[in-house]
Amino acid sequence: MGREAVAVCHWQGEIAEAKVHLDSRFLQLRGQMRLDLPRDAIRAVDLDDAGVLVRTQGGDLMMEFGAVEAARWQKAILKKPPTLAEKLRISAQTPAFVQGTFDDAPLAEALSDATVGDPADAMLLVAVLLRADDLQQASDLALAHPDKHIWVVHQKGKAAVVGDSTIRSHMRGLGFIDSKTSAVSDQLTTTRYRQRT
After folding, report:
1. Four-point Cα dihedral 48, 50, 55, 61, nearest 10
2. One domain for residues 113 and 191
3. Domain limits for position 9
4. What's the CA gap between 153 and 190, in Å, rounded?
5. Per-residue pLDDT reduced to its tens digit, 34-74
6. Would you call 132 helix, strand, or coil by DSSP?
7. How many other C-beta atoms are found inside a 10 Å radius of the C-beta of residue 168?
8. Same structural domain for residues 97 and 72?
9. How many CB atoms lie within 10 A of CB 63?
């Protein structure tokens, strides 16, 4: 997810070709040059001949793309990334029913003032999986409300009690399709499922 291109990059005296990736949280360089710039560390983004000059607290990053692509990258970097609530499409007008407990500030912020106590009143469902038996409870909830999307939230990487492939196999085996994935925080990620019609 995000925007990607290859550019000649100038950073702190180094010049190298790198794969540039922009997502909601970082501007990253990979390849001959490696760099992770948090978007909130970017102070200004200026066009400079055939490139984009990204000014940060730690220095200036010049990325040479060509004039047309440079203008697109400037616009993309300056565009405010969507909030987690916007990515999940959760709001006071489209509230969610939440199953499971969690201690995660970004998820709590996304759900603040946008939840209901009865799944029948919700526009969508959120199931947080932190224990092995949470997956069965999540699929039971989804099966009981087949007209609603369910966001299945789980831990990332090796820390996950229930991993992405296990969840996907289980949900697909019950006739659900996955349609979107989003990072929630440094610890959590989520995938949206809906029963096939």
Report:
1. -140
2. yes
3. 3-78
4. 4
5. 999 999 899 999 998 879 999 998 899 999 988 889 999 99
6. coil
7. 16
8. no
9. 26
